[in-house]
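**Paired protein data**
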Amino acid sequence: MSIKPVRCLRLLPLACLLLTACSLTQPNVPGKSPTSPQWQDHLSKVQHLTQYQTRGSFAYISNRKKLYARFFLQQFSPQRYRLLLTSPLGSTELELRAQPENVQIIDSQGKRYVGKDAEYMVQQLTGMAIPLDSLRQWMLGIPGDAQDYSLDDHYLLRNLTYHQGNQRWNVTYLGYMQDSIPPLPQSLELTQGEQRIKLKMDNWTVQ
């Protein structure tokens, strides 16, 4: 009867060795390093895209507001761009034209508003708190001012976390257009508290 405990004790080191081997051969696979030359090369190429346009679908969902629309974004330079939101039936929901020190917005009623802060104006007119300056960079697949981000196996942005004041934005990339040069996002989702924004790009045209 005293032999069985001894056998168990002798098997313990072997069991520990097997468990250690499993933990060594099945690690949690981390994303690619942000310091990798592949990511730095991709980042540089995207940052040099000064003129581009994209269109697709836009969804804004919160406890107080829901909006589903088509969007068309044109960037003429880093500080000059045009954003158009239209209803599923094609009517204009919002048109925004921005350039340094001047922002013009036309709402669904055709009323024109002029100011200097696009994010503030959009929030006041629509109730949607959207970090427009950051979003334009996130749509390109670059982190902008976000310091906390990770890459996928293709050295492309996988997700990021960005703090703006007391708000924390989380961005998840759901797909890329691999046939575009450089590869650009096809769909992404933003969350902040009870706000959720979904973007799906149909195509990109870059210069």
In short: The longest helix spans residues 3-25. The radius of gyration is 24 Å. The longest strand covers residues 66-77. Residues 1-29 have pLDDT under 50 and may be disordered.
